[in-house]
Specification:
Number of helices: 13
Distance between the termini: 29 Å
Structural class: alpha+beta
Strand content: 5-15%
Order of helices and strands: HEHEHHHHHEEHHHEHEHH
Number of domains: 2
Radius of gyration: 19 Å
Number of strands: 6
Strand order of the largest sheet: 2-3-1-4-6-5
Shape: globular
Length: 267
Amino acid sequence: MESYISNELGLRFPPIVLLKSDEKPSDAKGPKEGRGGCVMSFVAQTIAKRNTTCFGRENITCGGIATGFGWGDGFSSQEDMDFQATFLSCGLESAPDRKAYQKRLDRMPRVSEMFIEGERIYSDFDTAITNIKNRPIYDEGQYVIFKAIENLEEAETPKSVIFTLNPLELTAMIQINSSFRTKDAYILTPQASSCQSIGSFVFEQDESDDPKPILGPIDFAGRSKTRHFIPDEYLTLSMPWKLFLTLEEVSTKSVLQSELLNKYLEI
């Protein structure tokens, strides 16, 4: 399948799709079983190199990934949740029990400065724990598969369509997305990890009669895993399949046909 929007804008990075499955594709790249890490390096390879990549439940080493890909909340205990809330806020400074947090860091084989100072997505521990508890939670499928939209098979229905856009392309997409709406917010920017902004928050929008796209990534930890493949100025705009189809339809009578936009694209 091809995207009309992508072709008209001449996107450097055409959209990719996220699929849920109980079967692992034989041709997909991904971490070895038992090894996890941040999934965004694999997502970036699908975006930039058009490789099919796959991540399974057996690769979970981060509660954020579990939530992002719809594999439960990712926590086996309150201690695990408290640890992530501490890490996502101001690290050791935010820890309700600093000795316990430091003790856990001491047991980790490699501890970066980020764990000590925190990722600082949230201003304090209480704000972090509240947001963690309010995340959309799903639990289905053994694998998450990323593939280029041109490799999507007819029988496959994506759970998320992910555009990767520079500022000018994003401007056009915002206008297209707003062109048929009359009220409320048109784009959402949840305080979410990169994998959640392309996954679980999109899954939540799929349940809405008026779905909105999700802008990301807004976490620098996730961005640090993609910058080898994707320039820093690019953002993702992710959406449910049904919203993607709507945008493809309305875009045939949109800013894409305007001389004003064409002048920008010719620069």
